[in-house]
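During the no-cost extension, the postdoctoral fellow (Dr. R.K.) reprocessed legacy sequence entries with the updated structure-token encoder. One reprocessed record is reproduced below for audit purposes.
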Amino acid sequence: MQLIGKYMERKYFTLSAFLIIVIISVSGWGYLVHRTVAQLAIYELPKLMQAFFYTHKDSLVYGAPRPDVRRNQDESEGSKHYMDMEYFGDSAFSVVPRKLEDAVAKYSFDTLNKYGTLPYVVVEYMGKLTDAFRSQNADSIVFYAADLSHYIADAHVPLHTSINYDGQLTGQNGIHDLWETTVPEVEILNYKLSSRHKAKYLASPEQEIWKIIEHTFSLLPEMFAQEKEVSKNFTDSTKYRWEVRWGKNRRFYTSAFAKEYSRALKTSINDQLIASSNALADFWYTAWVNAGKPDLEKILKQSYNKRGFKAERKAFLKNQLVAKKILISTQRMTKD
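Re-encoded structure tokens follow.
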């Protein structure tokens, strides 16, 4: 049941001009990481899913940032990318219902729309992907698999779980872009982009996405604290740079600051990237199993390059995707 769409159609949705600005200016990860997450997850799938997903790799990878593009055109898209857990109190992870209809009954949809619906959206889109698998519609499978990859990746960004989404409440404006875009762009060549994880079945996708959100939220204190600590060794002129983006001259953290901030956080951002891919593989696999494990090779319209997949997966396991120029996202770095 497409609950979020149902409530939107019943006009429970309202959005202030302030929130429109937030939606346009704050996006999840960056195109670089969203695309990376989608590609890595393909290598973690079981054999019966490999041919289909690998053959559609480009569409999945380039489609991963699509929800961010869509929310600049569709005002109902914005709240799907976050959930501000502080609003729900110190016991938020105990009191907020796991199902959307129960949360709407408790808080109202207008409230959820204001403070975010991300975990509910993940479950909704996994359901849409399951339906696409069941109907064996190749285009729909690729479409919803790519969209699902975006929302799952967003669930691994700490600032997508906080009212202080850009450090605006603590004098750390711009930390959102710093953590999810600038640091990965500076450090991607040094990241460990490999994992031994194999897609596993999720008995309760609802519980799993909330578990992910809770862990992501727990990373906030350290990321805010380390920004303040690193800032002690920088002046405004070395900490910030100005760049024209989204039609305006905007302030961003410098690459030098991003490197020091990354060093202070250790492997935290890299870990969240890999965790995103691992979770994505699990959700894709669970949707396929729930659909009855349909034969995906029957709906392939192109031949499967099995040798190519094996070579890429081997490079993935050895952390050689970047060195071998296989990682699509680093071939065309996109400012978003």
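The chain has one domain: 3-330. The longest strand covers residues 240-245. The remaining legacy entries will be reprocessed before the final report is submitted.
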